Amino acid sequence: MKKVLIFVICAAITVCAFSACSKNDKNETSSTAAKTTTGITTDDAVIKEADAINLIQSYSDKELGLTAKERKKVSFMVASNGMKIDGEYYIEVVASIKNEHKNGDEVSYTFDHLGMYYIRYDGKKVMRKNMKAEKDEYIDMKIKAVPSTTAADENGEDKHE
């Protein structure tokens, strides 16, 4: 259990660090979207946390842009801050592979991001980042119902409806 908790914390820190360090050159003109990451709360998002992960995991390997082998190895994590892309706010879900590095008694971890997915706060748009493009480029994905882990109340009714 401690290893899982450490993995989740390390993954969240890594995602936040990479998001905060990404370069956004305002002098370049491009058809791709600009994004902002600092301090965007996800309070207004209708899909959060485990539900966001379940939604992304419900897509096929092809839709996610992953091979079957990659899909078996990745862990999905939700970024703690929201993303602003083309003036709209999104929840970010990252598919990463954790790599352990041993140097004597010291152990460190790195994460290879194989996929980045974005769910608009209203849940009506889902995109994936083109990981092969040099600049930020997003591909629209088919909208699906959210496979919920938290939506059923005591009567078995869906709270999101």
Structure commentary:
Residues 21-37 and 151-161 have low confidence and may be disordered. β5 and β6 (126-129) form a beta hairpin. The chain is built from 4 helices and 7 strands. The protein has 161 residues and is α+β, with helices and mostly antiparallel strands. Strands 1, 2, 3, 4, 5, 6 and 7 form a 7-stranded antiparallel sheet that branches.
Q: What would a concise description of this structure say?
A:
By secondary structure, this protein is of the alpha+beta class. Helices cover 24% and strands 30% of the residues. The chain is globular.
Sequence-ordered SSE layout with sheet pairings:
Elements: H1 2-21, E1 35-36, H2 49-57, H3 61-64, H4 68-73, E2 75-78, E3 83-85, E4 88-103, E5 106-120, E6 126-129, E7 138-141
Antiparallel strand pairs: 1-3, 2-4, 3-4, 4-5, 5-6, 6-7
